[in-house]
Amino acid sequence: MTVSLRIDILSVVPDMLHSPLNHSIIHNAREKGLVDIQVHNLRDYSTDKHRKVDDYPFGGGAGMVLTPQPVFDCYEALISQRDYDEFIFMTPDAPQYTQRDANMLSTKSNIMILCGHYKGVDQRIRDELVTAEYSIGDYVLSGGEIAALVVADSVARLIPGVLGDAESALSDSFMDDLLDAPLYTRPAEFRGLSIPEILRSGDHKKVREWKLKMSEDKTKTIRPDLYKLYLNNQ
Ligand code: 6GU
Questions:
Q1: What's the 117 CA to ligand 1 centre distance in angstroms?
Q2: Whose CA is closest to 132, among 147, 156, 120, 114?
Q3: For range 138-144, the mean pLDDT
Q4: Which residue of 64, 89, 91 sits with most ligand 1 atoms within 8 Å of its CB, as the best mutation to test the pocket?
Q5: What is the DSSP letter of 37?
Q6: pTM (predicted TM-score)
Q7: Ligand 1 atom nearest residue 143's Cα
Q8: Of 96, 102, 89, 110, whose CA–CA distance to 35 is shortest?
Q9: Is 185 a domain residue?
Q10: I need a surface site. Which of 10, 188, 192, 227 has the fewest CB within 10 A?
Q11: How far is the CA of 222 from the centre of ligand 1 (A)?
Q12: Residues 130 and 185 in one domain
């Protein structure tokens, strides 16, 4: 089977990435050969005798900065082997990553993702190499690894064959700007709590209408921003 997407992740703490990439859906996708995810330790590309990858910021300020040399060298080693569609930098000072970005990236063949670390990275990396930058939300993480995993997971699950029919991405929250309706499973009665009667009616049309109404109400209440998009796209 030919791999439809290869993701190369560049990090100074590659061990942070291994466990999440070796479990559950991403793990199965890699095992099935549907997605190839390779992690690169930027220290391995450092020409410094102590494998240093960071230094003090010119002009002063708190925190260290990722130096350009290991990133440029890793990048060059990779592009000498294949063409890349995107070189993504994960950083909080960037546009927010959305399902639309995941959908777009899932159509690519080769992407590189650089995880930000320390106070940030030398701007020349961003100016010369990076083609897209994403933040995953308005809060600060201690590094870009968790954010890179968010991108890898959200993209991998869109690759045909990664999810079974039952889990199909077509029925996801966000698929059509609406959040999912509540779900119930057996038993129908639990500690005196019963499920909505309509779900046991066997009337598929009524159930569909109920689910849509629940999705709309829930979205309107907790994500009015998404609800507005939904109304505009109707
Ligand atoms: Cl991509 N990186 C870091 N360090 N913090 C974040 C983020 C990324 N997105 C939101 N917070």
A1: 10
A2: 114
A3: 95
A4: 91
A5: E
A6: 0.93
A7: 4
A8: 110
A9: yes
A10: 192
A11: 23
A12: no
Q: What is the CATH number of the domain that holds 37?
A: 3.40.1280.10
Structural domain boundaries enclosing 92: 5-156
In sequence order, the 6+-apart residues with CB closer than 8 A to the CB of 65 are: 54, 55, 56, 57, 118, 119, 120, 121, 122
Angle at 115 between CA 42 and CA 112, to 5 degrees: 80
Give pLDDT, residue 117. Answer: 86
Bridging pattern class, strands 54-55 and 35-41:
unpaired
Best substitution site from 9, 12, 90 to test ligand 1's pocket, by max atoms within 8 Å of Cβ?
Answer: 90
Q: Of 97, 128, 156, which closes a domain?
A: 156
Instruction: Tell me how far apart the alpha carbons of residues 109 and 112 are, in angstroms, rounded to a whole number.
Output: 10
Give, to the nearest 10 degrees, the angle between helix 145-156 and helix 24-31.
Answer: 60
Q: Which residue has 């070189």 as its token pair?
A: 87
Number of domains in the chain: 2
Q: How far apart are CA 153 and CA 160, in angstroms?
A: 14
pLDDT above 70 (res 42): yes
